[in-house]
Amino acid sequence: MMSDQKFQEPFDPAREELIDTSAVFSGEESTGEKPTDEESGVDSAGRQTSIRVHVSLLDSLMTLAGELVLSRNQLLQTISSGGLKSAEAVGQRIDLITSELQEAIMLTRMQPIGNVFGKFPRIVRDLAAQLGKQIDLSIFGKEVELDKTIIEAIGDPLTHLVRNAVDHGIEPPELRRQREKPEVGSVVLRAFHEAGQVVIEIEDDGAGLDSEQLASLALRQGLVTAEQVQSMSDKEKMNLIFLPGFSSADTVTDVSGRGVGMDVVKSNFDKLGGQIDITSETGKGTAISIKLPLTLAIIPCQVILTEGERYAIPQVNLEELLRIPAHLVKERIEIVGSAEVVRLRGKLLPLVRLADALGVERTYTDPDDGSVKIDRRRRIADRRSKQSPLTTAPAAPEQDADQHAPPVRRESPDRRIATDSALNIVVVSAGPITYGLIVDRLEDSEEIVIKPLGRHLQQCQGYAGATIMGDGRIALILDVANLATMAHLSSVDGSDRATEVQQETESQIATAEDSRSVLIFRNSETEQFGIPLDQVERIEKIKRNDIEYLGAKRVMQYRDGSLHLICVDDIAQVQPLAERDDLLVIVFSFGTHSIGLLACGPIDTRDIAARADEETLRQPGIAGSTIIGGQTTLLVDINEMVGQLYPEWF
Q1: For residue range 604-627, what is the model confidence (pLDDT) as tens digits?
Q2: Which residues pair with 353 in a beta bridge?
Q3: For the chain, what is the radius of gyration of the CA atoms?
Q4: What span, in angstroms and rounded, lies between the C-alpha atoms of 395 and 392?
Q5: Directed axis angle between helix 120-131 and helix 155-164, to 10°?
């Protein structure tokens, strides 16, 4: 009787019941006996092979799986009946369910980072007692969650960094007293979310690092040359600590390094798609910041094309996309020492051709007959581009002749007059260095599923994995850090020319009355428009058939909702939107509302003076005009346009 009453007890879905999936999926029952390692979900290395999941999350997965089955049946029925419009609606529903299912499955793998942080208080306490130091450890962000695979992989490198902070960072109490510091040293360990990633910071108030001393040690150990050190910035000198073989310790101890360098720590985070950055001030302390993706299974990437092959660049390494028209190559691309660089907002970024880094033969399309020919151009820069030495110190004659010899002049006309000669540059960051990767074409950004490389390809340094695209073809995922190493890339931040460019930029900002950045685009093929860049929230690429017409309104599906679309010619007396299949949508936010402005490419950003002609071409929706790139550019007043079209929003 008691048994019947127990089974009739109503189920409360709000209760926070946890299920050990290793037992559920194996069909085992609890016997009260102590489980073996295999039964308890622990492998031979001591790692957990099972996870605990909330019942509510499993219920959500079952619901989504049922919705997916229903949508599949609808799709099969629609295909058999030949209804194209119905198939599109069902396809959109499947896309939405798949996204929700992906998010729910990812949640099953998430674990709190406190599982790793929990062991550090004892480690710090034992080390402090062993070294005769007094250390206060503060931990924040234990509740931050990461993928189970990442949680398991970051334990050892984080332990190494914490032990380093205790051993090398915090000074002994008597030395801290001499430096007028508290006798008790401080080590802070924190984790938090930032821009879709998890950031882990390890900070101490110890002796800090001296960038000049690190550069001297690296030079003495033969890891860098004197010329490389001379052209390095302070930040790059600080990151020399991550070089393979670098050591700042006179003897190997069993406390912190144990003969293992920081390069091993960096390589471990690199394998996880993470980035490590170090900042330090002599006598004040050191802070190490680690950025990690939430999961390793699915990541957002920028797809690019080079020599007919598609590659993917993880967005965690992506800084921005840059296109330099053919006629601006001679102005934007320079040669500093033996390095070719692009001038970008007061900085000089070294350039690498992706085809050259991967050992692929470069080709180009002849503008006259459309045939594909071998590209024999040795330099990225134009023969009229500015050339500068690394430093003002005179170089050896043989070095000067080799590094700064002018490029060979061809008798044939310059190919750069063709539109296809424009440079598509992906600006990527690889630890301490940021550089430009030259590719043939920029395609869409996509979320991709990472597949590991086969054993016969794992020795290829330039690749971090592979993925299968929507058309079934394989695209390799690029490892931008290893590409920089393969290209023997070095920074020019410490060169005289970099200092000169920085001073010029600062001077222009100081002398400009009120400069501002504008986004340049087109509405028709001939008219150019600009809009303040700080008003732009996002730029989307769409097809013309993505636009839906509801009465007199244009809308498109956007982030599980609808986005209103407008054109400049809806208000202003300008030429209508160009008849193109590929369009751009510039997204703006107005409180709780978003709106998209239809536009055509190419787009660019420029810094212009705030002074503009507010009378000659002033009209509704157009605040005025200015000259940009030798062409009259109409400045769009998006607030006035939206105010006239949707007055109820204000």
Answers
A1: 888 777 678 888 999 999 999 998
A2: 438
A3: 29
A4: 9
A5: 30
Instruction: Identify whether the C-beta of residue 105 lies closer than 8 Å to the C-beta of residue 134.
Output: no
Domain boundaries, the chain: 40-108, 112-293, 301-404+413-500, 512-649
195: CB partners within 8 A, 6+ apart: none
422 vs 139, 171, 289, 328, 374, CA distance in Å?
50, 55, 37, 9, 17
Residue 183, token pair as written in the block: 């006798």
Whole-angstrom distance, CA of residue 563 vs CA of residue 594:
7
Say whether pTM exceeds 0.70.
no
SS3 content of the chain, % helix, strand, coil (to 5): 35, 35, 35
CA distances from 237 to 183, 380, 398, 463 (A): 30, 28, 28, 27
Cα–Cα separations (whole angstroms), residue 170 to 113, 358, 523: 25, 44, 60
Tokens of 131: 């070294």
* Topology of the domain covering 512-649: OB fold (Dihydrolipoamide Acetyltransferase, E2P) (2.40.50)
Who's near 549: CB < 8 A, 6+ residues apart? none
For the four alpha carbons of 369, 373, 377 and 381, in that order, the dihedral sign comes to: positive
Nearest to 235 by CA among 169, 279, 285: 279
Please identify, in words, the CATH class of the domain defined by 112-293. Answer: alpha beta
Query: Between the ranges 132-141, 361-370, 492-501, where is the mean pLDDT highest?
Result: 132-141
Beta strands (DSSP E) in 93-179 are 110-112, 134-140, 145-147
Label residue 23 by pLDDT band (50, 70, 90).
very low
Residue type, 349: L
